[in-house]
Amino acid sequence: MTVERGGRRDAATTPVIPGFFPDPSVCRVGDDYYLANSSFEYAPGIPIWHSRDLRTWTQLGNALERESQFAAGASGPSRGIYAPTLRHRDGVFWLVTTNVDAPGEQFVVTATDPAGPWSDPIVLTGLGGIDPDLAWDDDGTCVLTYCGLDPALRPDGGALPVIAQARVDLARAEVLEPPRPVWEGTGLAHPEGPHLYRRDGWWYLLIAEGGTERGHAVSIARSRAIEGPFEAGPANPIFSRRSTSSPVQNTGHADLIENADGSWAMVYLGVRPRGFSPSFHVNGRETFLARVDWVDGWPVVDTAEVLPTSTDTAFDDDFAGPLHPRWISPGPAPSAFAETAPGAGVRLRRTDAADRAPAALSVRTRDPRWRYEARVDATAGAVALRVRLDERHGYEVRLEAGALSVAAQIGPLRTGDDAGRADGEIVTLVVEAVDATTDGPDDLRFGVIDAAGERRLAQWDGRYLSTEVAGGFTGRTLGLRALGDDPARIIAVRYVPVAE
What we know:
The protein has about 500 residues and is mainly beta. It has two domains: about 10-305, 5 Propeller (Tachylectin-2, Chain A); about 315-495, Jelly Rolls, CATH 2.60.120. The protein is about 0% helix and about 50% strand. The strands form eight sheets. Strands 25, 26, 27, 29, 34, 35, 36 and 38 form an eight-stranded antiparallel sheet that branches. The termini are close together. Residues about 1-5 have low confidence and may be disordered.
């Protein structure tokens, strides 16, 4: 095994935040940059990042950590929290987003420290859609622009989305006017993800188009007034990888940022598909970076830049203190079922409900090839290590009273096999993403390390835990969950990327 560290990488093919961290939105305060991502059904929601150079990012926390902000576990796969926008004004960070399980609403949370705590939601009703943006007009009026899904917003009464807008009063949680359409995009599918910027007397409206799959693209328009009318850019889309052989695809849903020196940059999402046609992406939609130049009053995207180092995604965790913000769950938030204690690791209680995903202490996979180890107490409650794409697509290894088994679910199909017994009181459960033996993106290999050494238990095709098979908008997570009434005890975990 060769651990992958450091090295200079091409910005066009290397994410600055690898793994399932989609829909990036960025703001700057002095020399500091802050970024937020979508989180969908996972809790805590909306990871918040900090950087001094746009290239190296550290997770500060998560904005939605309480039930009063987001009802953890109540959302199905790829539902819940959609694309946020993060902005800073007058010493306050403003984060606006959508919970798609509360239709007709957008909500805003605020903080003076981006590491938190964040406020309870300011709920704005009557704005049915997704991907909200906040901007302030020259007179200080706040404008919320979003992807409107109400057919009444379209001049032709059609069902396609349209970029819509309304003035809002955040102090009173009021929408001040009926929403109005401001741009239908260039004619590509699914105009969404709007962001507004003020530059040189113009208001620029950046959107995503073409759907978040292989046709994804970034387009732009501008107007002298924040409410339009907006004139489409002469070179739309200004960025896309559609119909190319680029190893990074689905590029779009971008946000622009002006640097302290007056230069500009763009963060955007992309995926790294692998395997035979149609190719399969497994780590979700990731955050990438590009330089932006302004030519004749319009932005031009340039990805021909070298990143000084690649992101170090490796980590070890013995759970000696509070949970790191990397830990999430598709069901109840980790705080509801995971308890840490110095020297004791983390204890996991089984927390299931008929209409929710099982609680699982989870972390995102972040690399094409990786190895994950979980040292568990074999004398404690039964435990499973699961690779999850959603509740209908996952593989896992289980340890129950010393007995090992492996299980797979692909849609409605389930299979499982006994895998012998583990020898010893402390056992390490292992899963690795290794080179594919078929035409998929990888294979997932499960194993165990016990008193008898390391041995392989199962190896399955990774394509079935991909977005192209399962659908949706998320990526793989590695989850640990209790299986019985007695708490499971995890002593430590280790994740390392592996060079290909």
